[in-house]
Amino acid sequence: MNARRWAPRQYLPTIGLTAVLAFLVLVPLGFLLVSSLRPGGMPWSPGFTLANYMAVYADPALPRMIKNTLIFVAGSVALGLLFGGTLAWLVERTDMPARRLVRALVILPMATPPLLLAIAWIMLLSPRTGFFNEVLQKALGLSGPVFDIYSMAGMIFVEAVAVVPTTFLILAPAFRNMDPALEEAAAASGAGPARILWKVFLPLMAPALISAAVFISVAGFVVFDIPGTIGMPVRIFVLSSQIYYWGNDTPSGLPLYGQISALAAVFLVVLLALGLLYQRATRRMTRFAVIGGKGYRPRPFRLGRWRIAALAFAGLYFALAVLAPLAVLLWTSLMPYLTGFSTEAMKLATLANHAAVFENRRIGTAALNTLIVAACAATAVTALAALISWVVVRSRAAGRRLVDLLAFVPISIPGIIIGVALIYVYLTLSFLPVYGTIWILVVAYATVYLSYGTRSLNAVLIQLHAELEEAGAASGAAWWRVFRRITLALALPGLVAVWIWVAAHAGRELSSALILQGRDNVVLSTLLWDFWSAGQPNRAAAVGVWLIVALGVMVGAWQMLQRRER
Amino acid sequence: MLEIDGISVEYRADAGPVRAVDGVSVAVAKGEFFTLLGPSGCGKTTTLRSVAGFETPIAGRIAIAGRVVYSAERRIAVPVHKRDIAMVFQSYAIWPHMSVAENVAFPLAAAGVRGQEARGRVARALELVGLGALIDRPATQLSGGQQQRVALARAIAKDASLLLLDEPLSNLDAQLREQMRGELAALRARLGATTLYVTHDQEEALSLSDRVALMRDGRVVECGTPQDLYYRPKRLFTAQFIGRAEIVPCTVARRDGRTTLLETPLGPIASACGAAGAAGAASLMIRPEHLTIVPAGSGAPNTLPGTVASAVFLGRLFEYEIDIGGRRLKLQTLSAQPHAPGARVAVHAPPERCVLIDETTERH
Questions:
Q1: What is the pLDDT of residues A407-434, one digit of tens each?
Q2: Going from the N-terminus, what domains does chain A have, and what CATH number goes with each?
Q3: Min Cα–Cα distance to chain B from A61, Å
Q4: Which of A473, A481, A490 sits opposite B80 (nearest CB)?
Q5: DSSP-assigned letter for residue A410
């Protein structure tokens, strides 16, 4: 009959998803742990040893690497919060001119991959050939360069510029939605603007600020592009670049897999703790009842004479994050060799580098691979995240909390570590012919971006009233029909936004692609890296310009969707 | 038509399982309009959602139109979409990505009804709720009252044996609510569908229902016609939840045919209504609107002398507190003849409106 017997069926969704997630997340981490205890550094090599741990943690260079990592992370949190927080406050709570324009443009830098941002800033501030340095040196009549990008300060500066858009996106809604009555009550109690800022606004915004800070920290631990391009040439190593170095550039030429695993295993514990902290912070943020009714329009803070200064600050940010890097990349892409900006050099201008982008077979293959990988990873993440979010938010299936947690964990796994772990997995499970192909990149990216997908779709589904789906079932429609015609249809803008975001980020992801690079899976980001490290900056710049254009279109589309959803 | 037989529903909470519904049994006849009434958290919505299939009870049995849809003993739990029900939700749950017509056609498409027939049934359902003109309107461009009607039309279009309504009027403003209540009554007269209705609003329950089950703490306290519950409540909770009630502790003195003589702090009172078998300590229930003020010293039975302690003018009505032998009794009359505070009056309580309830206030 139609009657359903109740039985283990209600556990099926969670069992199925847990199995998929365990394979994507837990299996690689498990292989990593096993490898760290093998003398040969590979999961299948015989024996058991703690030598890898000894080698890593007794190394006298380790404390300096840890110190560098912590300074890098702390510095980018401080600078990123200062920039992103100030921008968010100016846009949402003050009468700064052109607020809307700034809000629309603030995420534009997302289109610039951190690798290109770093390359551009090296071109601008390198001590020998940096454009800015040359100009300043001439203008001030100095004998030496003013700035040196190849420094900890340089790394922090570029990383902070790179995290500002995300910081803004975390903070701006919290700033915007705060019930102005809370501040007005303080004003009515006789508190001045400064007192209100310190005693009311910042404490109330603490959950948002903490979650932004933890997010930037995680990003700082995970990022490779910037420490790899700016720090490595002058041997300033942080966690991610240290792992890359051990994997690719050791004196012996052989990757030190055992040591990589031993280093990664301990850092992962720290990163997972940070990830959970972030999850708790954001959860508290939604629980914090500072969001008032809809009708309120916050009274903007009057900047008075400072309005122009505020606009100049926003302008400075765009100059640093978009205009200057883009200009120098464009200029370099038109030059036959690295040269400063001058009218004489203009005569050298050539489109040869751009022509190569469309003619060179290697670039063509890389572009095609990038497209395929980005599209597949985005589709996989969107589909899997939709199922996971539905089970987590809507179903009452037992174990959905575990599914949610497993889907969240990858947020704090550096791409470099995922890359190494996937090498272990797919060299071991050699019956899956994935190693060295573009498909291993799809697996890596899908894993890395899954947490973003589930986070955003959880938020989308929570906003959909459960009765909308229940009305579907009560109308006599079976689960699949309700899921398709109602849930997915209503969540469509959110799904498309996730797809575009993942595709855009997969198009720029460097760290795991570098580790997993084989002969047949070169993508644009690794090609850029190769051009850059092989001393072909002009060619790298040309590829970079076109990559930024493509990513810019995607980010623009993504933002329009996000806007419509509100 | 609908049989709910001893169902219990439990929720998992941090402090352990919470019993939201505790052994509820209800039988609804074909064509009957049956209402589950009670304060929030009494389990009425959970009971309705168990009938729909959104909640799975841990015990009991539910049958709709002769088909068992849930049975703990036989391990049957028919999924929602295979039950012969249609439902209107508190939030209306109108799908914003569809037009009015698409919303109403959805249950038909799910049942495989398409083309000309589907279009005809959609149009008829919308005509019934008075929305025929808005058939192609996007659902996002509807007012609250219109959304309510679309939700009703969608439920009607499914043509199910049992219509479930979950507080359908609670999201409307007061004026619209009254209007929709009238239309709902007209609609149910026309459709004659078997209906299970959930509300916390006693006026809705009394005006629409054939029978009402009053619930509290996951159990049915009392079940009966609206007039039964109002005039002849068997439980103190019913007396106090439906309408207003003065509860006076009393002792049964003796029975005299159909009337029972009670000793009360107000003096001896004759009751011709309520628990005939009561003995010893019990409660007397009188509704303030059933008491009348008569000239002092008339000496008729059930006439109690007192003084006006307070008088509140409500326009159409006067609300008094009358001091009778040190105990205050509330009384409501039309405002034709005002009485000033301090006036000596007598209060008449008709014996058939003096309800004897076999329950004491301590136990309540």
A1: 988 888 888 888 888 988 988 888 888 8
A2: 12-38+346-566 (1.10.3720.10)
A3: 49
A4: A473
A5: G
